[in-house]
Queue: 3 jobs
Job 1
Amino acid sequence: MRTKDLNVEKEKLEIIKWVTGLNDNTAIERLKMLREKPKKTDWWDEITDEERAAIDKGLEDIKAGRVKPHREAKKLYEKWL
C-alpha cells in the first residue's frame, strides 16, 4: 500500500473515532445529509437572494471605504459579544 493510501485510511479511522463520540444532533443530521445527498454545490448557490444582496452590499461598502476598524466595531457591539 502506498503512503498516500495509508494516510487516507488513517484519516478515515480518525473520522470514525470522532463520529462515534458525537453527541451533537445537528452535526449528526448534517453528516446524514452529506451521505444521502453528496452533491458538490457552492455555498453561494445555497443561500437566499437576501443573503446574496447583503454580501454584495458589504463588498460595495468595502470598495467605497465605508468601513470601520475592528476595534471600533468591537466597542460598538461589545454588549452583544
Note: The first helix runs from residue 3 to 20.
Job 2
Amino acid sequence: MPNLSRSRRWLLLLVLLGAALTLAALFLRPSVQPTAAGPAAVASAPVPAATGTTRPALTVTTTRPQTGSLPVRLAANGNVSAWQEASVGAELGGQRLAEVLVNVGDAVQRGQVLARFATEAVQSDVAQARAAVAEASASALEATANADRVRTLQHTGTFSGQQISQYLTAEQTARARVESVKAALASQLLRLQNTEVRAPDAGVVSARSATVGAVVGAGTELFRLIRQGRLEWRAEVTAAELGRIPAGTAVNVQAASGAQLRGRVRMVAPTVDPQTRTGLVYVDLPTPARDFKAGMFARGEFELGAAPALTVPQQAVVVRDGFSYVFRLHPDQRVSQLKVQTGRRQGERVEVLEGLDGQTLLVASGAGFLNDGDLVKVAPGSASNPASALVKPEVPATK
C-alpha cells in the first residue's frame, strides 16, 4: 500500500508540471492580428520593390531654341497734355457780364460767341461819338467854304496875307478835328464789338471762370480752350535713350483706363532736366482722342524697328526666387536646371539673352513641375513647338 501511494503522488506531480508548461506556452506565444481577408491575405502580401527601380516624374514635351526677328520697343511713362491752349480774356473792362453761352467740355468754332457784356453804356458812348463826328464835319464844311473864297480873292488884294493864312489854317484844323472824332467813334465801335467774347480758334473749352453778373477788368481770363481739340503725350525718356527716337517714330500709347491709341513723335525736346536727367518726347495723338483727357497719366512703347533674337516658348521658362530658369534634357532622360536671362517678349515666345545656345534640347510643357536631376518621360510625337502638348504626371498603375 505504501508503494501505491508513492506512485500516485508522482503521477499527480507530472500532471501539474504538464499543466504549468502548457500555460507558460500560451502566455509566451506571439499574438497575430486578424485581417479582413484572413490568413490568405497575409500570405499573399506583396514584397516591397527594390530601391534601384525609379519611375519618371512627368511626361513632358521638348523643344529647341529658335532664332527669329523680334520688334525693338522702348517703354516710357508720361502725361497727356493739350497740344496748345488758348486763353480767352475780356478786352472790355468795367462792364457787367450779361450772358455766358458755353460751358466746360463744349466744342466751339473759330469766331463763335462765348459770352456777352451789357452794352447800354457802350452804346451811349457810341452815340456821343457819332454826334461829335457830325459836329466836326459841319465845322469842317464851313472852314472849307471860307478857305475856297479866300483862294479865289487872294490875288485881288481884298484879304491880307495874314487873313488868308488864318482861313487856310482853320480849314486844316477842321479837317483834323473830323479825323479825330472819327477815330474816337471807331474806338467806341470797337468797344461795342468787344462786348461779345468770341473764340480765337476752334477747340474744346477746358476751363471757365466767367460768371453772369460779374464785373471784370480788362485782360481777365474768362475761358481756356484746347486748340483744335488736339492732345499730345509727353513721354519722359532718359538722356541715354533720346538719341534712339527720331521724329515720326510710331508709338502705342495706353491710358490708365486701358484705352489705347497709336501716335507719332512730333519732336524731341532740345533740353534735358538737370535734376532727373530725363527729356521730353512730344507725341501727337489722333483727333479725337477718345478716352484720353489732358492731365491723365499714360504709358507707351516706341517702335524702334526689329532685331534678331534667340527665343523659346514662354512655358519653357520657369521663374523661381526672382530668377529665370529652363530645364535641359540629357540623353539619360534626366533634366538639369539652367539659369538664363530673358529679354523681349512677343506672343508666346520669350527672348533669351544669356545662358543658352541654339542646339540645347529643352523641356517645354511641364517645366514648372520639375526639379534639378528629375527623371522624365518624353511624350511620343513631341514637336519643337509644343504649344498644344499637355503635362501628364506619371501615376503608378493599380491592379
Note: The radius of gyration is 52 Å.
Job 3
Amino acid sequence: MTTNKSHLFIGQWRIVWMAGWDQDYVDMEVPGYIAFEKNGLGNFQFGLVQGQTDYHINDNRVEFTWSGFDEGDEISGRGFAEIVQGELLGHIYIHLGDDSSFRAIKQK
C-alpha cells in the first residue's frame, strides 16, 4: 500500500553509517548511497556492492528486494528503512551473506 507520505522517500540518500562496514569501505568507489525513484524502482551502492531495487512503501516504511553485484559476483537480498527525525534508518540483507543496519541523509 502506498500512502501520501511516499514522496518523502523519493530521491537519493547518502549513506553516512553502516554497522557492518566502516565508512572508508562504504565510500570506496563512490560516496555510499541508496536512491528511490517515483516508479517503484531504485538503486544503491556501498563499497563494491551495488544493486537495483524494487520497493514498496507502507506508511512510514519502505521495504525492498534487490539484485546486483559484489566484486563482479551476482548477489541479491532484501531490506527496509524508515524515516526517523529526517534520517533514513534501515537494514540491508545479502541473501546467504552479510547484513547491516544503515543510516542515510537525504541529498538535495
Note: The mean pLDDT is 94.
